[in-house]
Each structure stands twice: as structure tokens, then as C-alpha cells.
Amino acid sequence: QLVLFSGKLNTIAGVVTTFFLLVYATVNLACLALEWASAPNFRPTFRYFTWHTCLLGIAGCCVMMFLISPVSASASLGFLLVLLLALHYLSPSSTWGYISQALIFHQVRKYLLMLDVRKDHVKFWRPQMLLMVQNPRGSARLIDFVNDLKKSGLYVLGHVELQDLDALPSDPLQPQQDSWLSLVDKLNVKAFVSLTLAPSVRHGVRQLLFTSGLGGMRPNTLVLGFYDDTAPQDGLARHPAFTNTREDVPLGFPPLREPTTPKLLSAREYVGIVADALKMLRNVLL
Questions:
Q1: What radius of gyration, in Å, describes the C-alpha atoms of the chain?
Q2: 265, CA 20 to 30 Å: which among 40, 56, 64, 252?
């Protein structure tokens, strides 16, 4: 309205045109990202659509922006950058999905197929850890310790739930998955989570050793807590990730067993787990 009152409508025409061209460029960029991600729900009806037309559209819009007004084009790009940062940091989580996740999935799948286990060499060996955790409340310090040991290798937190799926109405591991993922985020460890259901701990560890990982990224080292008679202590409640904030431990893990309560894992089964890992040619850390 101020521009209209000043009688200089042409001063805003260049900015408006630049914004329109910027919109067209970002639409082409979105289509290009969807095409490169091979998103299954992206099926353009334009008969001549290819990623080349997307690049041509982006390049054409950007060139025309600067031909019309270099100052307006630079200001528009700066405004767009500020808007993107504001949306990234201030907006709530979206429900329509993230193209970045589709691109990451596409690239990870491609590189996992290229990672050939037959080309492994001792020069480039790195520890890929599978840490068995019965209850994270008593293993918080061990989770941190193994995170430091992995040296940019694979790190998997494994847990065995002692139940029988035939006697249950649904999978009990699905509700627990969110708690474990929240734990990984809160402790700031670079780890994956692998949960399994088994009639015994030994069978569950076997399952995880056989199935954890994908392609050339599989655990080569099994880490077990030391078997002794020490009473378990809740290290999660005293972990700096929780004590440095005013939050309680909001994770849905059960309380630790009482010192007088017998262990779920016998000494014989513990030794059997070690023997199984050695048979599978895995390294073992106790």
C-alpha cells in the first residue's frame, strides 16, 4: 500500500517477479528431489518429465531472476534462506513426510549394495558392536562406554524379551521401540536398536547375532555385561543427560530387580552365550 501511495508501482514489480520465479525454481527442485529419491508416490503426468527438465527449469528461473534484477534476486534468496531456517527451527514436526529421509534411504540402499563383504581387509577393520542390554536403567554407563569404543563402526543395542508370541494378542516389542529410540536420542549415542522375542536369553542372542545388521554392516563383536553378584543400580536416573535438565526419566523401562530377586540369566546360560558367539566367529567382550 505504501508503494501504491508513493506512485512507484514499478519498484515492486521486479521483486514480485523474482518471487514468482523463485517459487517455480523451488517447485522444480522439489520434483528433482522426488525423482532422485525414486519416491513410489511420485508419478508425474507430464509426458516429457525427466530430471533433465527439472534442472533446466531451475537454471532458467535462476538466470532470469538475475537478468531482471540482481539486487532483487539476491534479496529474495536471502529472504528464502531466512524463511527456511525459521521453519526448520520454529515449526513443529510435519505430518506429510520429509524428502530428506527418502533421499537418505535411496542413497543408503545403493551404498549398502556396493559394500561387498568379500572385499573386506584387515587394514580397514573396525569394531562393530552388539551390546546386549537387559534393562537400560542398570546399563547407562556401559552404553556410553561402548559408544566410545566403537570408533566410527556399527553400534547396535540388543535386547531379548522373554515371552511367547503364540500366547500374546499382539507384538509386545512395538510399544517398546519408541522408548529405546528415545533413549538413544537422549543419551546421544550413535546406535541402532534391535529387539527380539525368544523363550530364553541364549536363543534371543543367537537370533540377534544371526540377523542384526544388513549386508556388509553386521556386528563382529558381542559385548556382555560382566556376570557377578553386584546389586544393580539405576545409573539412568543419575546420567548427565537427565541430571543436567529438569526432566525426569520419562522412558518406559521397568524398575531394576531387587538384590534378593534371582537373575533371569543363569551362569550356565551366560557361558553358553559366549560359546555361541565364538562358534559364530564373533569377538567377545565381557
A1: 27
A2: 252
